[in-house]
Amino acid sequence: MTRDLNRVTERIDLHLLEILDAVFIERNIGRAALRLDVSQPVVSGALTRLRLQLKDQLFKRSPGGVEPTALVSLIAPAIHRALSEIHDTLQETQTFVPEQSDRTFVISMSDSGELAFLPAVQRHLAAIAPNVRLKSVMVPLGELATALETNTVHIALGLLPEMGVEFERVHLFDQDYVLVMGEQHPFAGQAITRELLTQFEFVLVGRFPDVEQLIAEHGLTSRIRLRVAHYLAVPMILSTSNLAVWLPRSLIAPLALLGRYHSSSVAALQRTFSLSAVRHRRSVREPGAQWLWEHVTKAIIDTYVEST
Known about the structure:
two-stranded antiparallel ribbon; D-Maltodextrin-Binding Protein, domain 2; 11 strands
């Protein structure tokens, strides 16, 4: 069996292995086609050829996509490593000319990151690489390591967990949370004390467990009146209610473009957190990815230092 498989793999087109790799990663024919910038029939046709060559079904239908067979689960990680080495070696021999490139780079960040950082990053890159494209995605934390390792995402930004020695991390800045309310709020403009906070009602936004923990530690959980998933809901909520919200300080300036608000630091409830950029260490070998890393981190650090 091993000898037969070896004879078969000697004749397999590299392009077919790239398609197998994409389907294994995406677990979906359509998403694999988008990843490779080809049509779905091209992906399906390639899988048909591979099924005949490897004498295996390769993938079975499942809710929302496909699942690999035992054979694919066995060989796909090695195929991915080999393709990555080939890709990296070829990239090392190429130059990256920002002024001429029309490459698309993918950055993972939350919606708060899009509000706080993305405009500055886009302006910075557009000034030196006018045809480069950026794509912002929000990859779940549990999938982020795989996305970075497979080059689905080039850089991740935000409040990120430790991800292992194969990933490089750079500290961007520390920030605290600020209490924000609409200008019509009855306590707007007043000095916010611990006692006054007990009279506030709050809206909670996004995936910042620190905020909920901070509120709970001071006995204010019962004052939470609304929970929303996205920060873009905040301006309308604050403008049309007497709710207040705890926001990362970096969101104050973007929020001010959408309305008039009052913000206040509350000494009794101070808590800081660190924002980082993370990439796979292999990307240092690729000129375009290295260029992106240097300029994205610089744009964010410079912007935040200027604003504080």
